[in-house]
Design a protein that fits this description.
The protein is built from two helices and four strands; from the N terminus they run E-E-E-H-E-H. The chain has one domain.
Length: 70
């Protein structure tokens, strides 16, 4: 088990690294590759994808996101 900060709500939580949902984020921008600060999409550059890391998302944020799916 590991402890980390949720990408969505920034709360600390304990998780199993093999089973936690993750979000690919470019540490230089704090956003997923290919997403702008205005939430528009653009092609992700190979450099942005290469430097991106998987950040954990807590179960509460996953449930909130599922409620907004159409």
């Amino acid at each position: 088990m590991e402890t980390g900060r949720c990408y969505g709500c920034k709360r600390e939580f304990t998780f199993d690294p093999a089973e936690v949902e993750t979000f690919l984020v470019d540490p230089e921008t704090g956003l997923p590759p290919g997403l702008t600060v205005l939430a528009s999409l653009r092609p992700a550059t190979p450099e942005a994808v290469a430097r991106s890391v998987d950040l954990p998302v807590c179960p509460d944020c996953i449930e909130r996101a599922k409620r907004f799916q159409f």
